[in-house]
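Lrp/AsnC family transcriptional regulator: structure, please.
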Amino acid sequence: MRNELDSKDIQILSLLLNNARLSNKEIAAKIEIAQSSTHDRIKKLTQKGYLKGAFAQIDQKKLGLNIEVILAIKLNKQHRAIIADFIEKASQLPGVIQLFHMAGNSDFILHVAVKDSDELRGFILDRLSTLDYIQSTETTMVLHNERVNNIL
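Here you go.
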């Protein structure tokens, strides 16, 4: 599908990936095409599914979320219903930033932000361990998190 994109489409996606708040006027100026053409291209990129949404990057520390962890979770059963149940429940837990369903040693990876180690302990013991299909969890602390957008 990527081969149906031209260089201007890729420039638009790249600009929006790094700052989804850019106006149509700003994008048009940066890639040197008319605003109407930029608008039409963004509309087509959205209709074709290249643009799925716009997201805000929040400073978690300002919210008091001082600890980030990666939780590797192994399930004791591999059934569609269990996987769907876990995805539904985990995606609703406070503090979950991102959820990945994995192939390999872990079945799921959760990226989680919490206030402190007590909140992390509660997250694991009071929320995750109540799900009887979780076999094990492994916690790794994130020392630095930086969003890098080098996919285009």
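Notes: The chain has two domains: 2-47, 60-142.
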